[in-house]
Automatic annotation (TrEMBL):
GO terms for molecular function: ATP binding. It comes from Streptacidiphilus cavernicola. Keywords: ATP-binding, Nucleotide-binding, Transport. PANTHER family: ABC TRANSPORTER RELATED, IMPORT ATP-BINDING PROTEIN. Residues 11-254 form the ABC transporter domain. This is ABC transporter ATP-binding protein. InterPro entries: AAA+_ATPase, ABC_transporter-like_ATP-bd, ABC_transporter-like_CS, ABC_transpr_LolD-like, MacB-like_ATP-bd, P-loop_NTPase. The keyword Transport applies.
Amino acid sequence: MLDTARTQDAVRLEALTKQYGSGDGAVAALRGIDLSFPVGSFTAVMGPSGSGKSTLLQCSAGLDRPSSGRVVIGGVDITRLNETELTGFRRESTGFVFQSFNLLPSLTAEQNVALPLRLAGRRPDRRAVLRALAQMGMEHKAGSRPSELSGGQQQRVAIARALVTRPAVLFADEPTGALDLSTGRELLAVLRALVDAADGPDGVGTTIVMVTHDPSVAAHADRVLFLADGALAGELVAPSPEAVAGRMTDLAVAR
């Protein structure tokens, strides 16, 4: 487990770039990003289509390698790790939530949540697995398979799976994108509670970095970062849906 208490930043990005292709066909997805995500904070990342927000999230989480620059999580420069080290680091220190849930249909909710521990070669502690499900209000569905759960329940199980290792940072890519409005609001309340709780790995709430396209979703965060053409294009602190929507409109007009 990382000692994030020794640094005020859960994640720090330094001169981060990502380029796809080469020569005349090269596309710069990220252009020298300098950015930090404080411990115990909730950050939303927004931008027009093709702005680089998903690439930023994937590079920050160690799911993709940047072309240059550094990604430092809890004091560890993950860009210096080899593939084996990086895989182990992700399993122990970060969690990732996808829009599509990615639960294995043949496994129960409890077994899906325990999967990261098994993949890490650890014998799952059933109490830890049930505790993660309880955080999501899903302990009563521990024996249910994904086909027996609603979309919102499946996403709660997916978040429990990401939390079972007690990661330093939870990354979420459009976590409400596949949910109806009411269920999405319920899920956002759960994420907000994770940030505000004081029972995280270092006595603070979970650090969450979330990509979204919805101003109402982004307004649940402490701040919203805006990207345009692979570069930072401003931020809003204590955002309102109206302020976020206005900033997104300005970015669209500027293009």
